[in-house]
Specification:
Length: 372
């Protein structure tokens, strides 16, 4: 759900403000932004918003004010892509020099040095403080989907032998220190959340058991909200591939995991991915499986969705399939990202989303802007 719609230099655009003003009228309780990058040298996409300091304070405040004037809260999702960025950065960095095995799109990363790790930890805190000062109601660390925090957590991408690698405690040190730095800067009462993988769904990578242990660690630190997801660019489980039958019946992609997480933590839990039926969403809340129902892609096609649910105008939502039919492309999740991002651009221009938008046209535009 990265909007990829900033102005030059990563400046929050008027298009983003219009988009979130529309969503702010949707009936949603909390809106979490797409990727906001905390380092201009590390972009996941060409037009990511970049917040390193107070440079764009006025734009951030306008974004927050427009979104929150009807009662919802706006949180900033803060991210560093690490190795998982196409050829738009001068160099890629990661926990280790393990390359993403998708030929032609991703260069080999360089392993971060100790002082660079410390700088990134500090940078997350600076971005969070800028969000707070501009009136955003909370922040979220993006620790899922194969980005840098996820790269540190996974033994597949973190083969370091220093204090940042090896044991799970060491691999989790990076995200723990990010949380502590943010907490130090924003104070005890400001909400901090994290998006974390239930698993990476790859051999030798971050496992479900390890994820539950990290939830234990972050809960003990005082994390205010934990959002559950899963997968990476290599294995895009967050797009709903290869669901168990029990998952299909309960809709949410990581429904089995969230029950295990609930048994491990008292922190509020957010589950995003797959929810399409109002009765299923209500049952998950009533059964105390989670505290927040997360809806992402449907909002890019039906921007008033929550209000329609609450007012009884809709009981379910079905989305068009944005696929090419080419398995390798569809598995990576690029097309989903690009198709829904384009719907957000349309809304940012003040128009209604287009459910019949051609997947191929969107894919070609994404490749051209990313590589040329």
């Amino acid at each position: 759900m990265s909007e990829n719609n900033a102005d030059k230099g990563g400046r929050p655009s008027e298009r983003l403000i219009r988009l979130y003003e529309l969503w702010g009228r949707s009936g949603a309780g909390i809106l979490i932004s797409g990727n906001v990058m905390m380092d201009h040298k590390a972009l996941g996409e060409p037009k990511n918003v970049i917040i390193e300091d107070e440079k764009y304070h006025d734009e951030l405040k306008a974004w927050a004010d427009a979104t929150q004037k009807n009662g919802c809260h706006l949180w900033m999702q803060i991210n560093h892509p690490g190795r998982q960025a196409p050829k738009i950065n001068k160099e890629l960095v990661s926990a280790s020099d393990v390359q993403l095995p998708i030929k032609g799109l991703f260069d080999k990363p360089r392993a971060l040095e100790e002082h660079e790790i410390i700088d990134i930890i500090e940078g997350f805190g600076n971005t969070a403080l800028a969000a707070k000062n501009a009136g955003w109601k909370g922040v979220q660390i993006h620790g899922a989907h194969g980005y840098l925090v996820s790269q540190f957590l996974s033994p597949r991408t973190n083969i370091r032998t220093d204090r940042w690698g090896g044991s799970l405690e060491n691999r989790a040190r990076f995200v723990v220190e990010i949380y502590r730095n943010i907490r130090k800067k924003v104070g005890a009462d400001y909400p901090i959340g994290i998006k974390i993988n239930s698993a990476d769904f790859q051999r030798g990578a971050f496992t479900e058991d390890e994820s539950l242990e990290v939830i234990d660690i972050l809960s003990a630190e005082g994390m205010d909200m934990i959002e559950v997801s899963g997968g990476t660019y290599e294995k895009a489980a967050m797009m709903g591939a290869k669901q168990k039958e029990s998952t299909k019946q309960r809709e949410a992609y990581f429904a089995d995991y969230i029950i295990k997480a609930r048994q491990r933590t008292n922190a509020p839990l957010l589950l995003t991915g797959g929810f399409r039926t109002l009765d299923v969403m209500a049952a998950a809340i009533e059964n105390n499986e989670l505290d927040f129902v997360g809806i992402a892609r449907p909002f890019a096609v039906y921007p008033e969705l929550a209000k329609e649910f609450f007012e009884g105008k809709r009981t379910d939502v079905h989305l068009p399939k944005s696929t090419t039919g080419i398995r390798k492309i569809d598995q990576m999740g690029f097309l989903d990202i690009a198709w829904y991002a384009h719907q957000m651009k349309i809304m940012g221009d003040g128009k209604r989303p287009n459910p019949r938008l051609s997947p191929w046209g969107v894919l070609f535009r994404f490749i051209r802007k990313s590589l040329f």
